[in-house]
Amino acid sequence: MKLSQFKFKFPEELIATEPTPVRDEARMMVVHKSTGEIEHRIFKEIINYFDDGDVMVFNDTKVFPAKLIGNKEKTGAKIEVFLLRELNEEHKLWDVLVEPARKIRIGNKLYFGDDESMVAEVIDNTTSRGRTLRFLYDGPHEEFKEALYKLGMTPLPPYIKRESLPSDAEDYQCIFAAKEGAVVAPAAGLHFSRELLKRLEIKGVKDAYLTLHSGLGNYRDIDVEDLTKHRMDSEDMVVTQELVDIVNAAKDENRNVCAVGTSVLRGIESAVSMGGHMKTYAGWTNKFIFPPYDFTVANAMVSNFHLPYSTMLMMVCAFGGYDLVMYAYDEAIKEKYRFGAYGDAMLIVD
């Protein structure tokens, strides 16, 4: 497949800039792989497509307030800092992106907060935009993290052209989020309310969790036409024995296994063993999935509607079939489905 095959005419007004008022009342397009049938539903009706013993796999990563606004020493220039990951707890070193990068050099100090009480020093240039910051803070680590996060804002996707609001801290977070480390929310999971999860549990649908800390690589432009030459950014993930046991038992009993989101699908495929089973895994994955691809574990998936050229769209096309998914996207545009992390959902089933 070529990059240009994932272009489609996309009206930008379909990008959702606010979430659906009630999580499980977003619209849901249901795509049947075997027949090509397309249904238009409400998300909470997803319960009708799964039965006792089926499994839904979620990503329990937790988004942290990664976006900071700082001021450069002497000039006072406004600098946007995006926290990516903590490199060293003892020395308070963080891997970050800065904008505008051209204004920042090694040795520069940045001041954060209205009182400029949080100070960081640039100690390394890792990429053209990337830097390593050392935060100059004397207190204990937990106190430092708390102070840092109070200054941070929710890292909304770049296609949502507005500033973060206090409400985004809750809206851009799955209700089951538990393991801190993501700067990109697993958007398909945003549709699940506590009531819907309870109804699924009562019906006998099992929930299982992996952790994959989604990073900014999800939004990085692909700059090669030949997709085999694209390299995904690595992301930290954990697949536990508990998840493996639940999924493998379901596979042995011919039950449905639904991957909730492209991050889950990627995580599952990074931990595949023989015969459509899973194995435990803890480490990094840079797996890039695009058509054609043979999935052996999940036979259903939930996804939001993704933007042209995105790696998430490519993964959905690999799962649902390129022609069918691109046709479904044409239908979504005609029917004015909402795109992006705060948008509507697609369920792909056999």
Automatic annotation (TrEMBL):
Q: Where in the cell is it found?
A: Cytoplasm
| MF terms in GO | S-adenosylmethionine:tRNA ribosyltransferase-isomerase activity
Q: Which SUPFAM superfamilies match?
A: QueA-like
Metabolic or biological pathway: tRNA modification; tRNA-queuosine biosynthesis
Q: Which InterPro entries did the record assign?
A: QueA, QueA_dom1, QueA_dom2, QueA_sf
Q: Which UniProt keywords apply?
A: Cytoplasm, Glycosyltransferase, Isomerase, Queuosine biosynthesis, S-adenosyl-L-methionine, Transferase
Q: Which GO terms describe its cellular component?
A: cytoplasm
Q: Transmembrane stretches, by residue range?
A: none
Q: Which Gene3D superfamilies match?
A: QueA-like
Q: What is its main location?
A: cytoplasm
Which Pfam families has this protein been placed in?
Queuosine_synth (PF02547)
Q: Which residues form a coiled coil?
A: none
Q: Which EC number applies?
A: 2.4.99.17
Q: Please give the catalytic activity noted in the UniProt record.
A: 7-aminomethyl-7-carbaguanosine(34) in tRNA + S-adenosyl-L-methionine = epoxyqueuosine(34) in tRNA + adenine + L-methionine + 2 H(+)
Alphabetical GO biological process terms: tRNA queuosine(34) biosynthetic process
Q: What does this protein do?
A: Transfers and isomerizes the ribose moiety from AdoMet to the 7-aminomethyl group of 7-deazaguanine (preQ1-tRNA) to give epoxyqueuosine (oQ-tRNA).
> What PANTHER family does the record point to?
S-ADENOSYLMETHIONINE:TRNA RIBOSYLTRANSFERASE-ISOMERASE
The record describes its quaternary structure and partners as: Monomer.
Similarity-based family: Belongs to the QueA family.
The name of this protein is S-adenosylmethionine:tRNA ribosyltransferase-isomerase
Q: Whose protein is this, by species?
A: Muribaculum intestinale
UniProt lineage: Bacteria, Pseudomonadati, Bacteroidota, Bacteroidia, Bacteroidales
